[in-house]
Amino acid sequence: MDIIEVTDIKELAELFISMENHWAYRGQLDSTWKIEPGIARVVEPGFSSSTLYQTEKNLKHMFESSARHYAVAEELPTTDFAWLSLMQHYGAPTRLLDLTTSPFTALFFAMDGAIPDDGKKSSIFCVDYRALNQRSLEMLQQNEMEFDWDYRKFQLSPDEFFSEYVYKKVASTLWIMEPALKNVRIMKQGGTFLVKGDISQSTESLINQNYSQIPMKNILIGHDLLTESFDMLSKCGISYQGIYPGLEGLAKDIKLTLLQSYRKASRKN
Q: What is the domain range of residue 261?
């Protein structure tokens, strides 16, 4: 994985623009954080694949059985992948890790909550999702009997594929995909998910085992670029209101306007 540390906002913008349209990104406030989904951050390492799968299955059943009291039937998912996506949306621990196909949206999440003078760095994990998914398909073609999925079929039927080859089987694979049924927030954020075939293994371990040749980058951004980052995002039309629809986003944007003005005034003084 290439490690790139940027020192000014122009350099970062040029890097984003140079990347092709088959990359996915995850922005993280702290560059020391690992690339792990919620269930891996809650459950201590060391549990078997079967134990973790049963745990995830139980969590899904708990959520599914109670969610029917909070939504009309037409709004409820009908597939395993869509149910886990809905759980992820509301903060329940799942094997799904949020990514976006927009590097600028990833920058938003990387810098949201940063403190300009704390001396820390945010990071943006970048991966060529087309190459990663193709590699995973090749692995299943080698190990699964009568496996007839190609990349096109995988793209057209993600929920069926997820149930058959990701959710109910254990394989040392990584996937970047999203269910056919997307909620508004996923659509606004250009959202997708990094999904592990074996949730007992760390993402780093899976990458080292099977994906070391897949193009990946880790971009490090100092928190001293916070003000410039949000100025650039504003010019790109990326705001809290776009990320978080409704009054929540509006209130956060009002707060950001005040903070940006204060930071710029403090620099002048």
A: 239-269
